[in-house]
């Protein structure tokens, strides 16, 4: 896979790793820009509030979350600027390797949701529930059909963590349309979907993780 094929938005988070010692550290940065086939422009990572210094030619490994896995590529530092902004220029990789990660543990819930299909011409909201959820996806039981496989959707809900309620909106993609069980047919649930969360906002993802982990903890205590 070529780096350009990832079609990353500016501001996308990455991690840089330098194998200069026996205990390599990873430093967080963000994508600023890309000159196809030549350079990738990154924000300069900080440590203890200070910008790190990288030397020309220094070899780095970059990591980033892509879909349901981790993308990896090797690069080298070309230059680092301080004016007008701190920017790290690294070589553009010939390819990016991809390593899938095992799906996260799911927990049963009964979370009321409203869903909008972002590919539709109207912004109609369809009600339903999330029946089980993980950090990476969920099973939705909807009162009406909301879309087809591959459609991008927006899931709206209210989650509670340690007695604190927060509104949460998550971007997701419909990955499957699930066959209904006899019970689901009896309960008049016409549309059952498997979805993958593709939310990029870090604050929303943190709230999602907090909710999932709190539900897992409650599930463990009840068993």
Entry keywords:
Thrombin, subunit H, 6-stranded antiparallel barrel, about 220 residues, mainly beta, 6-stranded antiparallel beta barrel
Overview of this structure, please?
This protein has 223 residues and is mostly beta strands. The protein folds into 2 domains: 3-100, Pnp Oxidase, Chain A; 107-222, Beta Barrel (Thrombin, subunit H), CATH 2.40.10. It has 2 helices and 15 strands. It has a 6-stranded antiparallel β-barrel. The longest helix is centred in the last third of the chain and has 21 residues, at 202-222. The relative contact order is 0.12. The model has no long low-confidence stretch (mean pLDDT 84).
Number of helices: 2
The amount of helix comes to 10-25%
Shape: elongated
List the uncertain runs. none
Note the beta-strand portion: over 45%
Number of domains as seen in the coordinates: 2
CATH architecture of the largest domain: Beta Barrel
The CATH superfamily of the largest domain is identified as predicted glycosyltransferase like domains
Structural class: mainly beta
- Report the end-to-end length measured between terminal Cα atoms: 44 Å
Rg (C-alpha, Å): 21 Å
Give the CATH class of the largest domain. Answer: Mainly Beta
Mean pLDDT, to the nearest integer, reads 84
Topology:
Elements: E1 13-18, E2 25-35, E3 39-43, E4 46-47, E5 50-51, E6 59-66, E7 69-81, E8 87-91, E9 97-100, E10 107-117, E11 125-133, E12 137-142, E13 152-161, E14 164-177, H1 182-186, E15 191-197, H2 202-222
Antiparallel strand pairs: 1-2, 1-6, 2-3, 3-8, 4-5, 6-7, 7-8, 7-9, 10-11, 10-13, 11-12, 12-15, 13-14, 14-15
